[in-house]
Amino acid sequence: MITPEDKAAFEENGFHVLRSAVSPNEIALLKQALAKMLLTSKQHPYAKNLADAPDIADNPPDNPRGVWAAFNLQLFDDIFWDFAYHPIIAHAVDALIGSDINLYETASIHKVPGFPNNYRDWHQDSVYSDPQSNDRNVTVITFLDEMDGESGATWVVPGSHKQGALPHVLPTESLSSQAKEVADKHLYSPKGVAFAYQPGDVLIFLVGVVHKSGANLSNQSKWSLAYNYTRNDTHDLARVNGFVGAYLPITRNGKLYSVGAVFQREGQK
Which residues of the chain have pLDDT under 50? Predict the structure, then answer.
């Protein structure tokens, strides 16, 4: 699926768009599990993995807590273990960053109607993983709903990974995720691009790419998954990764190391 031209463009731009990677049936199963997760009470032992976004808008019925991000998804449903081994996505990542990949992190993003375009502003994911032994670490966004740059899609700055690690600061806006963003973020808005995605499309980008969460100006909730993968020889030099399933082998010698039962069955149909 990944041609030499795709690989060259990925190294130049820092990202690759993979169309129709996840089937409608797979999307339905994933959204069912996410819907159940969003009903987790604040008293539940795993509730700390759900990040609320207060004061953005009225919380819709499908997200009564106003959760905007969730982490360690495998704690909530086994399907999120299975999805780490999705054959189309895993093999594409393996081809883009070098053979033999491991899982690094699992997360999901839930944008309620009215989600602002600066809530999670321009940043590099590498600020949370560096120092690492190399740059073969990617974020993989799987879009579970139709999205574009004004309805929840991720914006990226082509080629920005070549700048290396940029200074990051905490945001000054009152309505913000309060997560780190690049210090001179005003420079990146004119350079950013977003694409139109259908459910099942995937965006793969190096964690050094400057990117942001797009606004959701639609009247519907928009959901996506955000998995991180690293090459097998990519090591945390400061041992910062404490995510569930970190360093789980995903591919070895061009083959899936294990098989997610749900997605293996789907792939055989």
Answer: 267-269
